[in-house]
Amino acid sequence: MGLGWLLWCIALLLGTSVAAAVGARHRPASTLVYGVCLGTSAVALVIAAASLIAGRALTGEVQLPLGLPWLGAHFRLDALAAFFLVVVNLGAATASLYGLGYGSHEEAPERVLPFFPAFLAGMNLVVLAHDAFTFLFTWEFMSLSSWALVMAHHRERGNAAAGYLYLLMASFGTLALLLAFGLLAGPAGGYAFSDIRLAAPSAAIGGVVLALTLIGAGSKAGIVPLHVWLPLAHPAAPSHVSALMSGVMTKVAVYGFVRIVFDLLGPPDWWWGAVVPLIGGITALMGVLYALMEHDLKRLLAYHTVENIGIIFIGLGLALAFRASGMQAAAALALTAALFHVFNHSLFKSLLFFGAGAVLSATGQRDMERLGGLIHRMPLTAFAFLIGSAAISALPPFNGFVSEWLTFQAILLSPSLPQFLLKFLVPAIGALLALSAVLAAACFVKAFGVSFLGRPRSDAARDATEADRWSIAAMFVLAVLCLVAGILPGYFIDALAPVAEALTGARLPQQNELDWLTIVPIAQSRSSYNGLLLFLFIALAALLAADAIHRWASAAIRRAPPWDCGFPDPSPMTQYTAGSFSQPIRRVFGAVLFRAREEVDMPRPGDTRAARLHVRLHDVLWDTFYVPTANAVQYAAQRLNKAQFLTIRAYLTLVFGALVVLLMVLAVWQ
Amino acid sequence: MDRLALDVAHLFAGSLVLVSFMLLYQDRMTGLINTFAMHALVVSFSVAWQAYIQLAPHLYITAAIALGVKAVVIPFALHRIVVRLGIHRTIEPVVGIGQTMLAGIGLVALSIMVMLPITAQAGTLAREDLAFALSVILLGLLMMVSRRNAVSQVIGFMSIENGLILAATGAKGMPLVVEISVAFSILIALIVIGIFLFRIRERFETVDIYVLHQHRGEQP
User: Fold this and answer.
1) If you ran DSSP here, which 8-state letter would residue A597 be given?
2) pTM: predicted TM-score of the whole model, two decimal places
3) Strand, coil or helix: what is B120?
4) Do A645 and B138 touch (CB under 8 A)?
5) Which among B20, B66, B12 has a CA at the least distance from the CA of B176?
6) Residue A332 has pLDDT above 50, yes or no
7) Which of A147, A284, A410, A591 satisfies CB 3.0 to 4.6 Å to A310 for a cystine?
8) pLDDT of residue A407
9) Do B209 and A648 make contact, defined as CB atoms within 8 angstroms?
């Protein structure tokens, strides 16, 4: 029953998309489209949450006569799909709420409105799809509709290039997934997921499918080094779409990975558990380092998406490692941690992108070096952004801390793994994770401090006004959810238990019956966390401190010469900048990872111009992987260009030769 | 009767491969067209025999079409074209008859190696026929590749079609409609190609496709 309603919701979204294509230029179209999207996603959210909590009662499977005639379109709602539907529709509902306000200052609504509901429908369909054809079709549908949204402001500098790169990487990823499904279906060609699940691929094929899935789903999720399109394309879209792409679409990619590797592929090999967390660790560290070097607010957030995807893949990889060694409970813990982080990241990343969008529409600036002092002009946005920053920096009592803490609990179980490589590798990955968590906190001190604190660095920042009430409402819904998920994690972990049980065969102990809302992932003697107590302690300590200061500190106004160590000159240019903040970290990591070169351009004695400090950063990954690939493609294209100008006989000879070679392969193969 | 039926079917199919080999080394236009007429004749015999042993009367129509159109009408038309083009006396330099023959033998071996294992479940009749048919097709392609004269390429193309008919009749139950439409499309192709030959000839005063290539406007 739930599934039928969900499909009707999706049909309504698609219908809205068509209607918006016709009537996008009319004045109330924006409100109408976002209103319908909000209502539909709210209904879908309720259905998905109900079926996740109710267990088997609302799940179901349906086959529609669409798509390939002999296959049909299979859709299924199970625990995993229900969880990801919650993530998708929560993000969709808040983005629609935000869009009600933000979309009214869109200068070209006909470029956004038709694709927004289609994008939502696409993400929902990917999660529900239950055969390879429907999955790939809806996956491409999702990619293309989001590409159209990236290209909404195609005249702005860099957006067309970002869209092109996105399209390229998306098609490359889908090609990898296509091959993966081809291998999974085997020679019998059973493309329904229920058939694929029955077939048991050999170890070699399993490894190839894992690699292809890592490439296919990973390029969409943004694992290093396939992340390059992400920091360009996500910020190029309108901000609520950026939030959806970063907060939700990357999660749909994670869903694709989980569905294929955990559900369809069968029992894992132990080395999968070494490769996937290692990639996750590298992704997390590189993502946060890139973010630190970035002074564009939205792009910084996009790089943090890369980091958080890394954290999620660490959790997923650990689950594979534990499952391969038969440690079901530990696998359930790691998987729960990863999925909980999926949920949490969708919350705070949407929140942060909404905040960045509010800043962008108030000031027209994305460059942090031209912001500052916004906390006075936009106090509510600043408060919500601060909560999001604390959550993404994994500070208790917010939700980011809980899921990263759970991931660390899983890492701490690694010494009981039988493989020696993993015994040593996993703690090293834990170190990477810890390092990236710390750097993320540093990065958000920079992002919040430079954008919202201090004095305005430009006229636009000085004249900013608070965002509209819809945007504020969307941000505060998410901020409250961040706090709730942080202090009541037990309920969320319990809701994830059916998913973990379906995929690993075990579940975490029931959490919501423990006293004082404590969570105990393994055993009381090992570790436990209580968000509520911590929250009360932090709140109490802060209130007492504030009270003490107000009560006992001197209220007398003193007049004194300004402390001119920091501000001898009242110009805002003398403030600490984002560049200054990240300079120490750039000094530490930059020389190797970014090949950073600093040059001081000193004027000659007697010359009155200012001295300049030039910093040059290279993207080593871009130079290592992408430039040679582009060159190779260019070279091959130039060489193959000759094949456009052959004689008829030469073409015939090519066909003949190809036929003979294929027949020979066939003859040898048998 | 059964053994005999098989043996005769194989005789015809084998003869078709043999005639395909003969096509490969004809260097005069007239001889080439006559050999092609023989090719079509063998095909029509083979199809008629299949009609007889499979008790499938509609195959007689196929055989009649092959005989009428491909063994009589098309060779006749080609003779006229060749005479009107004035190339009936020219000798087409066939490069390396020895090598071409060796390559042809290799192709026959290849098609047998491919076909026999994968058609293990099929009936004996279909198996051998399919292997022979694939050889005829490959030999036709080889001819199209190795010749420079447009007329010989047309003949190579039509010998491929004969191979297809051999394959199709070997398998039981090919609808007559298919065969008629294939034959008809071949006829259309002949007309189109014939017109083209004259157009080419008018323009460039030769039907050597190598010369055609030099006149293309899209040189890099």
Assistant:
1) E
2) 0.81
3) coil
4) no
5) B66
6) yes
7) A284
8) 94
9) yes
Q: Cβ–Cβ of A653/B145 closer than 8 Å? A: yes
List, for residues B28-81, the tens digit of each pLDDT value: 888 899 999 999 999 999 989 888 888 878 788 878 888 888 889 888 988 888
Q: Bridge-partner residues for A73, per DSSP?
A: A64
- In A432-447, which positions are buried (b, 16+ CB within 10 angstroms) versus exposed (e)? bbeebbebbbbbbebb
Q: What pLDDT, on a 0 to 100 scale, did the predictor assign at position A199?
A: 80
Return the structure tokens found at B140: 């036709």
State how beta strands A60-64 and A612-616 pair.
unpaired
Quick check: bond before A225 cis, omega within 30? yes
DSSP state of A70: T
- Is A134 within 8 Å of A194 (Cβ atoms)? no
Q: Which residues of A touch B144 (CB under 8 A)?
A: 652, 656
Asked whether the beta carbons of A585 and A575 are under 8 A apart, the reply is no
Reading the block at residue A249, the tokens are: 């679409």
B144/A656 Cβ within 8 A: yes
The verdict on B217 touching A (C-beta cutoff 8 Å) is no
Q: Which of B118, B144, B219 sits opposite A670 (nearest CB)?
A: B118
Name beta bridge partners: A76: A61
What CA–CA distance (Å, rounded) separates A498 from A59? 12
Q: Evaluate if residue A1 carries a pLDDT over 80.
A: no
- Both tokens of residue A506? 């075990």
Residue A255 tokens, joined: 């869903």
DSSP A201: -
Mean pLDDT of chain A: 89
State yes or no: ipTM above 0.90.
Answer: no
Residue A390: what pLDDT? 94
- What is the phi-psi region of residue A68: left when phi exceeds 0, alpha when psi lies from -120 to 50, beta otherwise? beta
Average pLDDT estimate for A6-16: 93
**For A650, nearest residue in chain B (alpha carbons):** B145
CA–CA min distance B134, chain A (Å): 10
CB contact under 8 A, A642 and B220: yes
Any chain A CB within 8 A of the CB of B111? yes
- For chain B, where are the alpha helices, taking DSSP H only? 2-24, 29-53, 58-65, 74-85, 97-118, 124-146, 150-170, 176-204, 209-214
Helix (H) or strand (E) holding A615: strand A612-616
Q: Which two tokens stand for residue A295?
A: 């002074």
A667/B107 touch (CB, cutoff 8 Å), yes or no: no
CB of B74 within 8 A of CB of B151?
no
Which residues does residue A544 pair with via DSSP β-bridges, in sequence order? none
- Number of Cβ pairs < 8 A linking chain A and chain B: 43
Q: How many other C-beta atoms lie within 10 A of the C-beta of residue A479?
A: 25
Residue A446 has pLDDT above 80, yes or no: yes
d(CA B154, CA B193): 8
- Percent of all residues in chain B with a pLDDT value above 90, rounded to a whole number: 14
Q: Tell which residue, A261, A117, A241, has the closest CA to residue A184.
A: A261
- Tell me the chain B residues in contact with residue A647 when contact means C-beta distances shorter than 8 Å: 209-210, 213
Number of residues in chain B: 220
Between helix B97-118 and helix B2-24 the angle, nearest 10°, is 150
Smallest CA–CA distance from B112 into chain A, residue: A667
pLDDT at A144 over 60: yes
Q: Print the SS3 string covering A449-489.
A: HHHHCCCCCCHHHHCCCCCCHHHHHHHHHHHHHHHHHHHCH
Contact B93, B127 (CB under 8 A): no
| pLDDT-based confidence at residue A480 (cuts at 50, 70, 90) | very high
Residue with tokens 């430079």: A450
B148 touches chain A (CB under 8 A): yes
Residue B23 and residue B92 in contact, taking contact as beta carbons nearer than 8 Å: no
Residue type, B94: V
- Calculate how close chain B gets to A186, using CA atoms only, in Å: 19
- Tell whether A638 is within 8 A of chain B (Cβ): no
Torsion of CA A316, A322, A328, A329, to 10 degrees: -80
